[in-house]
Structure formats: C-alpha cells, structure tokens
C-alpha cells in the first residue's frame, strides 16, 4: 500500500504540474505537524461534502486538495484520476450516497516516453507528431523579428575563386566574407536634348495619336544611329530650316594715330610724344570729359515678351466686377476685425425716421443741423476727391497729345501722295496748309498749270486724319476759281483729289510743310528731285482713274 500510495502521489505530481505538487506538499506537511492526540483520538468527523462521499472522508485537508485541482483545471493541466469525481462535480450537485452512479474506474496515469533523441514516442515506439504552433501575434516587435529572420544576407559572388587567380591582389579590398553595401546615390547624367525629345514626342502624341508618335520615335532612333556611324548617309540626315548668317561689317584697320589723340598732337603723329618731352596742344585740354557713344554688344536679339491675353468687352466687364467685389469684401473684413473705422450712417432728411427712430423726436432742431452739416461734409469730400483726380494743365495737354499723335519713339514714317486737278482756290489751299501743320506733318504742295501734287509725311494717326480731310471733307468740285472772261460753254475736267500712293519709309525727306508754285512740269519735277523723291511726281503723272481699286 505504501508503494502504491507513493506511486499515486508521484503520478499526480507529474501530471498536475508544480502547482498541485506544492499543494500536496503543503497538505502532507500540515498533516505531519499536527499533534498526536489530534491525529489519534481527538480527530473530529469530517462533515459536509466529505460526509456525503464515502471513501474521501479519510483524505486529510480535503478542501485544499479540491481547490488545488480546480486551479489546475483552469490552467489546463491533466487531472489526477484519483480525484476525478471531485473536479466533475458542479456546485450544488451531490453524488449518489453509495457512490455507484458516478463512480468510474481509475484510468492509467499518462506516461511520458522519450527516445534517445528526446522525441516523444508512444507504447509501440512510434514518434508522435505534434502540430507546430503558428505564431499569430501581430505585435510590431514580432513583425520586425520575422522580417529580420526573412532578410537574406548578401555576400559578393565571384565567377571563380579569387585566391586561385594569380593576378588577384588582396590589397584591392575585395573580401567575400564582407557584406555587400547598397550602392550610393551618384549623379546620373543624361545626354543633351533628351528631355526636349521626350517633350516633343509627348506633344506629337497628344496631337496626332499613339501610332504616329511611335513612328516619330523610331525615325529619331534611326537618325541618331545614322549620325553616330562613321559613314553617314546624307539621305538620312534631317534637313532643318536654313538660318542665314549675319554678314559682319568689315572692321576698320588700326590707324597710325587715334582720332582722339590727333587733335592734341601738333604734327598729327606720335613722334611728338617721347619719354623726356611731351608736345601737346594745351589749349585743347578742357575740364570736360567726352563719353563715347555706347555700342550694343554683337548678340542675338532677345525673344519678344509674352503678349497679354486679349479679352472681350464682356470678359473685361466681368473681371472688373469681380475685382470690385473682392475689394469690398476685404474692406468689410478689415472693418469686422477693427483695423479700419466703419463708415458713418448715411442719414438724410428723407430717411430720418427710418434710421434713427425714437431718437429723432427728442431734439429735432439739433438733429436736423447735424444731418445738414454731415450732408455738406460729404458733398465737400466728393468735390475734394474730384479736384484731387483732376489733371493739371500740363498733364491734360500730354494726354491730348497721346490721343492725337503717335508715340515719338516709333520711328516709322507714313507717306501719302495726293493728285489734285486744281489747287488754285485760296480757301482749299489754306485748308491743305493749316491742317498739315496742325497734324504735325511735313511735306509739300506743288502746283503747276496741269495738276497739283500734295505729299505729306508723319505718324499713322495724323495721316489718317489728313486723308479724311483730302478725300471726304473738302468739296473739290466747288473749289474752283472762275474767271470773268471764261465762257460757260468750255468743257473743263471736274476738279477732284485722288490718293496715288501711301506707304512707309525709313525717314522723312522734308523738314516742314510748304507750298511751291511752279510754272512748268519740269520745274515741279526738279523740286521733288532736289528733295530726293522725284518718283513721287512720276507716280502722280502716270496715275490714271483706271488704277483706282
């Protein structure tokens, strides 16, 4: 019996784990430390659950053993078959009095069998395969651990063993035991024109489609390959637009004496200047410094600036309205934040009762004076603003000149040549002269017996106004001087004015507008020839009504 109890206790300690073993040891210690009289004769009968279960009443510290086995069941340890009925009982459940209903035969204690390699085996000696527990943890520490385990350490791979190569130098620092470091970021240079070609292909693709863009890319690759070859086929070279080269002006030869030194030297050569003697015309030396005229460097002209977007009248009105609304919104926001003072209420005699309400009946006379003074103040502020915006006489004159005449910086000169049948009437001759002077035009009016020619030079605005005068405003048919001895039956051509030619020239040929009376056509042509524009007279002589378009 002693050996059986020992084996039972041993099996229970193995199966229940350290917790139940500790509990059993505590129980045995408590039972051995009890006095002899209590253990022998003074032991009270066990009441409660032990009295209902025959066979278990003799177990010392029954309740402690029960609690230990319940704790072991919660922790997942195997149960001791000797105390199986105790763990299967629920609270309030009482077993049969005679122990026949739930009594079971005690099962064998599980035996742990291991082979020489430490693996668990069964009774026949077969290895028991236990399923591997997969780690389902999602903690960051475990995830990093798995990544670290999955990381493969790369080492340099060689086609052959470097030690077997007679030309291998170990001082080069190539060691296959060292780890490979990632390549450092370095500059990646591209060929010139790569991005421009890609942009051109993308633009071509969006304009013509994928197929033609692919053809263009293939064509560019073929051209690049053809250009890279030594034997270039001239038929594959892309022909671009010919850019004319500017002809450089031949440089002047270096003179023996510079022009700025020639006026100072008496003999006009550098022989007057020696190391010990300096012969210079002292009267030519002054306190003034002559600055040479700056010459622009020989470079290509800059590209024209971007042109502003042309908007319609409706779009301009919409933008102006949006700007005004945004400005008013900003002003209201500043008033709300207290940055500027809010405007005073605009009280008038018409809205007096609506704005002030009950305050208007307290002192009507005083209130009326304040309203009238505020109205006068607003009116004066309006007048002051208008005066501040008003242009000065000089500014008004400049504005009128900008409106009537072209910008003087524009070097373009427009020329108009008019052919008049008869310019003998003094009134029309005065209109032709005074309008040319008021429009700041230069030129001449040459009169001969057969016809008259008027040439004017100036800006486009002035030429346009003068053309309206000559072709529309003057009644040339009525502007004819009638002689007393002239018979009414004579058939005379109708007096009229015709525009012979109008165009632009580099510079004007006349300094002012003048009227010249010539007796013959030869004298008239000589007058134009002296000014260098004899072809104006020839154009007027050869002009006919059929050429009017």
Structure description:
It is a single chain. The protein is of the alpha+beta class and 549 residues long. Helix content is 40%, strand content 7%. It is built from 17 helices and seven strands. It has helices at residues 2-32, 36-40, 49-52, 62-75, 84-88, 140-150, 194-208, 210-228, 259-262, 313-337, 352-356, 364-389, 393-404, 426-438, 460-473, 521-530, 534-542; strands at residues 113-114, 120-121, 413-420, 442-447, 452-458, 497-505, 513-517. The strands form two sheets. The chain has a five-stranded mixed sheet, with helices on both faces. Helix 1 crosses helix 4 (62-75), helix 7 (194-208) packs antiparallel against helix 8 and helix 16 runs antiparallel to helix 17 (534-542).
SSE topology sketch:
Blueprint lengths: L1 H31 L3 H5 L8 H4 L9 H14 L8 H5 L24 E2 L5 E2 L18 H11 L43 H15 L1 H19 L30 H4 L50 H25 L14 H5 L7 H26 L3 H12 L8 E8 L5 H13 L3 E6 L4 E7 L1 H14 L23 E9 L7 E5 L3 H10 L3 H9 L7
Parallel strand pairs: 4-7
Antiparallel strand pairs: 1-2, 3-5, 3-6, 4-5
Helix pairs in contact: 1-4, 7-8, 16-17
Biggest sheet layout: 5 strands, mixed
How big is the Rg?
61 Å
The proportion of residues forming helix, as a percent range, comes to: 40-55%
- Gross morphology: extended
Instruction: Write down how many β-strands occur, each being a DSSP E stretch of 2 or more residues.
Output: 7
Largest beta sheet: what is the strand line-up? 6-3-5-4-7
Question: β content, as a range?
Answer: 5-15%
List low-confidence stretches.
Answer: 1-57, 85-102
- Mean pLDDT comes to 76
CA-to-CA gap between the ends? 147 Å
Structural class determined from secondary elements: alpha+beta
SSE succession: HHHHHEEHHHHHHHHEHEEHEEHH
Please, how many helices?
17
């Amino acid at each position: 019996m002693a050996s059986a109890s020992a084996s039972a206790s041993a099996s229970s300690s193995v199966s229940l784990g350290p917790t139940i073993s500790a509990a059993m040891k505590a129980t045995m210690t408590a039972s051995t430390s009890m006095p002899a009289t209590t253990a022998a004769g003074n032991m009270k009968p066990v009441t409660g659950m032990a009295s209902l279960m025959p066979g278990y009443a003799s177990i010392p510290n029954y309740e402690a053993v029960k609690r230990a086995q319940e704790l072991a069941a919660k922790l997942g340890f195997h149960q001791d078959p000797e105390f199986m009925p105790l763990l299967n009982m629920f609270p309030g459940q009482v077993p049969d009095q005679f122990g026949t209903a739930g009594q079971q035969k005690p099962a064998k204690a599980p035996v742990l069998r291991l082979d020489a390699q430490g693996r668990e085996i069964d009774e026949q000696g077969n290895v028991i395969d236990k399923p591997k527990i997969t780690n389902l943890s999602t903690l960051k520490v475990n995830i990093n651990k798995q990544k670290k385990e999955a990381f493969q350490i790369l080492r340099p791979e060689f086609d052959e063993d470097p030690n077997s190569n007679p030309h291998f130098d170990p001082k080069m620092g190539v060691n296959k035991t060292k780890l490979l470091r990632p390549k450092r970021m370095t500059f990646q240079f591209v060929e010139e024109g790569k991005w421009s070609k890609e942009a051109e292909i993308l633009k071509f693709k969006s304009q013509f489609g994928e197929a033609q863009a692919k053809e263009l890319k293939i064509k560019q690759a073929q051209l690049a390959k053809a250009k890279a070859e030594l034997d270039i086929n001239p038929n594959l070279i892309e022909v671009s637009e010919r850019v004319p080269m500017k002809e450089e002006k031949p440089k002047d030869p270096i003179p023996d004496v510079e022009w700025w030194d020639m006026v100072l030297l008496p003999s006009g050569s550098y022989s007057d200047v020696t190391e010990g003697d300096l012969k210079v015309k002292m009267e030519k030396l002054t306190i003034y410094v002559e600055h040479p005229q700056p010459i622009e460097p020989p470079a290509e002209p800059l590209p024209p600036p971007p042109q502003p977007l042309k908007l319609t009248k409706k779009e301009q009105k919409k933008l102006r309205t949006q700007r005004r609304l945004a400005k008013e919104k900003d002003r209201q926001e500043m008033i709300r934040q207290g940055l500027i003072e809010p405007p005073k209420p605009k009280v008038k005699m018409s809205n007096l009762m609506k704005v002030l309400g009950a305050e208007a009946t307290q002192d009507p006379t005083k209130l009326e004076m304040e309203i009238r003074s505020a109205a006068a103040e607003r009116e004066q502020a309006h007048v002051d603003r208008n005066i501040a915006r008003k242009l000065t006489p000089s500014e008004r004159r400049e504005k009128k000149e900008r409106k009537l005449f072209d910008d003087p910086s524009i070097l373009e000169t427009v020329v108009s040549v008019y052919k008049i049948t008869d310019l003998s009437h003094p009134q029309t001759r005065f209109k032709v002269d005074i309008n040319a002077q008021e429009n700041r035009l230069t030129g001449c009016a040459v009169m001969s017996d057969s016809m008259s020619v008027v040439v004017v030079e100036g800006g486009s605005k002035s030429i346009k106004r003068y053309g309206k005068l000559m072709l529309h405003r003057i009644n040339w048919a009525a502007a004819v001087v009638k002689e007393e001895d002239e018979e009414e039956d004579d058939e005379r051509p109708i007096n009229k004015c015709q525009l012979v030619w109008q165009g632009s020239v580099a510079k004007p040929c006349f300094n002012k507008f003048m009227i010249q009376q010539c007796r013959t056509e030869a004298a008239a042509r000589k007058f134009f020839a002296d000014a260098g524009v004899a072809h104006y007279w020839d154009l007027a002589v050869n002009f006919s009504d059929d050429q009017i378009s």
